[in-house]
Specification:
Strand content: 35-45%
Distance between the termini: 23 Å
Oligomer: single chain
Low-confidence stretches: none
Radius of gyration: 13 Å
Order of helices and strands: EEEHHEEE
Number of strands: 6
Largest sheet: 6 strands, antiparallel
Structural class: alpha+beta
Length: 99
């Protein structure tokens, strides 16, 4: 059986690929493989991660909103409908999302 994958895209640009490793309640835990366009959005994810780590809920929610407004889409590798409304966390080679 093939691993479940999603391409993280913004327009025609490939940001990275998420490969499912497990599910934890409502979150899909994935391995993240960045593509060359990752650097264009990386600061958004760094800001979210750093705000959550320091307990700055307002800053974290603002950073998550900025990620949402960046126009990112998760495109399933199985040809399913693109996911446009989701929360996504990326830290190094790990990612988790919920839709």
């Amino acid at each position: 059986m093939m691993a479940q994958r999603w391409q993280l895209r913004r327009g025609d640009a490939l940001i990275g690929t998420l490969t499912l490793e497990g599910v934890d309640m409502f979150w899909a835990d994935c391995r993240f493989e960045p593509a060359s366009a990752w650097e264009t959005v990386r600061p958004l994810f760094d800001a979210s991660r750093d705000a959550w780590r320091r307990g700055d809920e307002g800053g974290a929610l603002a950073a998550d909103e900025a990620i949402h407004e960046a126009g990112l889409v998760l495109v399933p590798g199985d040809g399913g409908a693109p996911i446009t409304d989701f929360l996504l966390r990326v830290s190094g080679e790990s990612a988790r999302f919920r839709s």
